[in-house]
Amino acid sequence: MTVDNSAEVRQQRVREFMQMLPLTIELAGLPLCEAGRMFTQDQLDLRGTHIRNAYKLARQIVKDVSEG
Length: 68
Hints:
By secondary structure, this protein is an all-alpha fold. 78% of the residues lie in helices and 0% in strands. The protein has a domain at 39-68. It has two helices and no strands. The N and C termini lie far apart (33 Å).
């Protein structure tokens, strides 16, 4: 795989992620941060894990729907 192909694959994965981001966020079901407060590092890590798992589920849902 050449460098161009690798960059193209990465761009395609980013586009796929961005297209599925609304579904992913809904599946993750994370609450919004209160106004004027910040999340702690542990909270950010946990939210990232939830989003990562929700993205995997979103990809599976899209695959299942597309297969009929």
